[in-house]
Amino acid sequence: MTIADDGKPDEDENPVEINKPVEKEPQANSRPIHIEPKGSIEEKEKKTSAQDDEAEIPKKRHLNVVFIGHVDAGKSTIGGQILFLSGQVDDRTIQKYEKEAKDKSRESWYMAYIMDTNEEERDKGITVEVGRAHFQTETTRFTILDAPGHKSYVPNMISGASQADIGVLVISARKGEFETGYERGGQTREHVLLAKTLGVTKLIIAVNKMDEPTVNWSKERYDEIEGKMTPFLKSSGYNVKKDVRFLPISGLLGSNLKTQLPKSVCPWWNGPCLFEALDAVEVPYRDPNGPFRMPLIDKFKDMGTVVMGKVENGSVREGDSLLVMPNKAHVKVLALFIDEDKVRHAGPGENLRVRVSGIEEEDILSGFVLCSVVRPVPAVTEFIAQLSILELLDNAIFTAGYKAVLHIHSVVEECEIVDLMQEIDPKTKKPKKKKPLFVKNGAFVVCRIQVNNMICIEKFSDFQQLGRFTLRTEGKTVAMGKVTALPTVGESA
């Protein structure tokens, strides 16, 4: 059962398996991908004022696309192919990667090397961190977030999805591989549930490896996968007709990515290619005039303190005075960067690097929020939430005292359920009269949650991206929820 965007429970016919013991999960990382030398921030600042004027907010709309799915479904290969087809990588670089992959006896992985840049990832063939790259179509600028598929790196996948506007769920059509990813224990189900909880409202289902000999662009295999996925997507809270689109592709060959499939290859397909489907996605509304909110995912030193994140609400200009919460540090914006370009002004939805004065790099943690001084983000140590319980192991009881790891925007923090306030009947959507002592799998409950350290969150009704979360224990997703109320203390800076 999941929680729909209207705050009501949805039934989930296939919950995720959960364990009880708490395990502190690692802070998620994201790594920029440098396709070619771009120069340091210092060099970028040597632009003339005329160039700076040109580098105001780009006219094209901007979308963050996260690639999710089971390990080895082909996410990194598709990401690499997109960068090649959109002119971000040249033939010489591709030839170098082909040789490197062949030397490792991994001939089919060479496109993934564009996205998987460190040696551990290349040797294992597994994405660990969240790859980040950029490409453009005629109407849209895209940031690719290549999320790990392996269950050991789900915290990093959560980091990627929390920054995304739309998701591309990659499914392998190869015989046996779809089944492995879709069945219990596979990451296809968990990634769908997490994506929905993290605010990825639009999904493109890329049925990959259609060129593989066991598939050979078979309509029957494609229809089988669509038929099995559709009920699960519905149970996860997606409106399949409105918010989901299925596409057959080959990431290795680049088929149906930038140009439509020729009839000679796939006579039964009449739909768009991936680039067209991405262009057609409606941009989620963000308020450029609202209070500024930018959860921080990283920080570093470069001629001062530089913070990174995605603007979830409001706008920012060079020279603005802002707050870093929860430590209430007043900072001044010295410079703004979108991708590699220095700009003077940026609106919601942009991935920014912001150089600030007034705070040291070591005083900033992932999960802090850069926000407006007039309406700062609330900082709390407890809150009330609506929670959808997925699946617990036989020896686990969800009751007061239950501990888990909370993931909310870029925050990763240990938490404890301190009070089960009321249980909601999933059929009538009304509270049950008796206060629960514990709840079971599939329950929908209102509870009070406490964390060890001060965290920055919002009510879901005010800011969705700062008000939806997941609870995980020992590598499993236990529950999903929405923040419904905050204590009075903490609502003022």
TrEMBL record:
The keyword Secreted does not apply. GO terms for cellular component: plastid. It holds the Pfam family GTP-eEF1A_C. It comes from Cuscuta campestris. Residues 60-285 form the Tr-type G domain. This is Eukaryotic peptide chain release factor GTP-binding subunit. Its main location: cytoplasm. Belongs to the TRAFAC class translation factor GTPase superfamily. Classic translation factor GTPase family. EF-Tu/EF-1A subfamily. Keywords: Cytoplasm, GTP-binding, Methylation, Nucleotide-binding, Phosphoprotein, Protein biosynthesis, Repeat. Residues 33-50 have a biased composition (Basic and acidic residues). Signal peptide: none annotated. It is found in: Cytoplasm; Plastid. The keyword GTP-binding applies. This protein promotes the GTP-dependent binding of aminoacyl-tRNA to the A-site of ribosomes during protein biosynthesis. Residues 1-56 are annotated as: Disordered. GO terms for molecular function: GTP binding; GTPase activity; translation release factor activity. It comes from the Eukaryota. SUPFAM superfamilies: EF-Tu/eEF-1alpha/eIF2-gamma C-terminal domain, P-loop containing nucleoside triphosphate hydrolases, Translation proteins.
